[in-house]
Amino acid sequence: MNTRLIRLSSVIVCAGLLAACANPRQAPVYEEGATWSSQRAGLQYGTIRAIDDVAPRENTSGAGALIGGVVGAVVGRQFGSGSGRTAGTIVGAVGGAVAGNEIEKHNTQPAARFRVQVAIDGGQMRTFNLAQIGDLRPGDRVVVDGQTVRRY
């Protein structure tokens, strides 16, 4: 009985440590492509009104979930006997996979993305999602050519 208590305590401590590694921040999600409602042919001129940082999608490779699931299953297998051992293995695998996926998300640094709002001369507002903004700043005069925004 004393051995079970020690094992259970160690699993609880490990689960707490894994949960503490998860990153709970919420941010806007990056959307692929430009988000304007209509597209005109030719060049357009305008002024940048705003540039916002946008968090990209958080994609994981699955390695964190796989490793976490295996470790969780091994630890969960240490408890109970018969069907209790099977249940412990399943619960450990699921918990480990979730924790491993969160740790992988937290440790991978996705590339920054930017949402650029341009007030087109004539009153139209267009929004672009760009991987890099270079030296663009709010207030800059720009030329818009399709999905390209550059200072002039």
Compact description:
By secondary structure, the protein is α+β, with helices and mostly antiparallel strands.
Could you please describe the fold and organization of this structure?
Residues 63-104 form the Glycine zipper 2TM domain. Residues 1-27 form the signal peptide. InterPro entries: Bact_OM_lipoprot/Surf_antigen, Gly_zipper_2TM_dom. The chain is an alpha+beta fold and 152 residues long. It folds into 2 domains: 1-28 and 59-109, no CATH class; 31-57 and 111-152, OB fold (Dihydrolipoamide Acetyltransferase, E2P) (Beta Barrel). The protein contains 3 helices and 5 strands; from the N terminus they run H-E-H-H-E-E-E-E. A 5-stranded antiparallel β-sheet has the order 3-2-1-4-5, with no helix packed on it. Strand 2 (113-120) and strand 3 (125-130) form a beta hairpin. Helix 1 packs parallel to helix 3 and helix 2 packs antiparallel against helix 3. The chain is rod-shaped and about 75 Å long. Residues 25-40 have low confidence and may be disordered.
- The structural class is alpha+beta
Average residue-wise pLDDT:
76
The total beta strand count reads 5
Oligomer designation: single chain
What level of helicity do the residues show? Answer: 25-40%
Strand/helix succession: HEHHEEEE
Shape: rod-shaped
Pfam family, one: Rick_17kDa_Anti
Domain Glycine zipper 2TM: 63-104
InterPro entries: Bact_OM_lipoprot/Surf_antigen (IPR051407), Gly_zipper_2TM_dom (IPR008816)
Protein name: Glycine zipper 2TM domain-containing protein
